[in-house]
């Protein structure tokens, strides 16, 4: 086992021994229990017919998922299913398709740039995004640079408030309030994590609902969780994961997806979006006792734990699809900024087991930024009366 992977496993083990102070701040209960899946995958033809019938009476939304009511079928249908593929006899010679996040992001930005041009022609204004950066974490500074560069590429106006790490919470709230009142600002993003002494909840709740392009407002999270409702904004990284899966033509309905991590930035919203797409979702976190066993049963694994090399090749079922949301800075004196990014997944191992995988860098990251631009555009459209609800890419 490599040093980083050993450290990651030791970290997880240590977390279990000391439940009072988890180093991975994951807070939600485990879901996915046996028994529920029996009704989830009836005979394929029958399901297709039923889906068509249901689609006729209910609306469907690309990113928020097809709106199909739940009907439970008798478990005997399960007998008609083919046996699940076995993880045994793994063929270590094969190589997964690398999902190219950079090119997906480029296509999205191209589409956004066109819509921004149309908006400028129609109302004489461009969308505006305000970013609040507190402190001088090198990784946060890079992410903010990417966001501002993304804005420039599509014609979105960007504003940056850079505040010192030792400023008071009130100074940050004041900065957010000024952006709330600025009509040229349609999206406000407070870069996380904030310095330890600050109350994140208080600062994030200062962002007005209609400018919450990160989708962290409790009303946006609640509306994402309730299938009969539509949130104004969905968190960018969750949208990016779904976009990459949908564009890669990967079926989600009835599939077992494991999400590693339950943060409000990635894990939680991604698991909610997947359920809206009728996937069977397991969420695993620092207190899960058998993470490898759960991921090994999964058709799709989405990792957002923030632990480098946590997911080994042995954690995956042959042919699984792997989406790596981890962006873990690793010290690297040879790199320009003194660090480089690595994912949660041990790529060299996973690429031999998976059927498709996102790399880090060049996977989920660039699509996340593109989704932030999309949310900002949506917000501006709503503000200028150009749309009644947010568009779906
Ligand atoms: N309020 C808030 N909203 C966020 O969405 C948010 C946040 N705080 N805090 C931190 C995380 C992390 N995050 C990333 C976005 C893009 C890349 C990205 O573009 N990465 C590139 C560049 C990699 C490189 O530097 O080499 C890539 O993966 O190819 C990475 C990480 C957004 N986050």
From TrEMBL:
Residues 50-59 have a biased composition (Basic residues). It catalyses: (6R)-5,10-methylene-5,6,7,8-tetrahydrofolate + NADP(+) = (6R)-5,10-methenyltetrahydrofolate + NADPH; (6R)-5,10-methenyltetrahydrofolate + H2O = (6R)-10-formyltetrahydrofolate + H(+). SUPFAM superfamilies: Aminoacid dehydrogenase-like, N-terminal domain, NAD(P)-binding Rossmann-fold domains. GO terms for biological process: photorespiration; tetrahydrofolate interconversion. Pathway: One-carbon metabolism; tetrahydrofolate interconversion. InterPro entries: Aminoacid_DH-like_N_sf, NAD(P)-bd_dom_sf, THF_DH/CycHdrlase, THF_DH/CycHdrlase_cat_dom, THF_DH/CycHdrlase_NAD-bd_dom. Keywords: Hydrolase, Multifunctional enzyme, NADP, One-carbon metabolism, Oxidoreductase, Photorespiration. GO terms for cellular component: cytosol. Coiled coil: none annotated. Gene3D superfamilies: Leucine Dehydrogenase, chain A, domain 1, NAD(P)-binding Rossmann-like Domain. GO terms for molecular function: methenyltetrahydrofolate cyclohydrolase activity; methylenetetrahydrofolate dehydrogenase (NADP+) activity. It comes from the Eukaryota. Residues 235-382 form the Tetrahydrofolate dehydrogenase/cyclohydrolase NAD(P)-binding domain. Residues 37-92 are annotated as: Disordered. Residues 99-214 form the Tetrahydrofolate dehydrogenase/cyclohydrolase catalytic domain. HAMAP family: THF_DHG_CYH (MF_01576). Catalyzes the oxidation of 5,10-methylenetetrahydrofolate to 5,10-methenyltetrahydrofolate and then the hydrolysis of 5,10-methenyltetrahydrofolate to 10-formyltetrahydrofolate. PANTHER family: BIFUNCTIONAL PROTEIN FOLD 1, MITOCHONDRIAL (PTHR48099:SF10), C-1-TETRAHYDROFOLATE SYNTHASE, CYTOPLASMIC-RELATED (PTHR48099). Homodimer. Belongs to the tetrahydrofolate dehydrogenase/cyclohydrolase family. This is Methenyltetrahydrofolate cyclohydrolase.
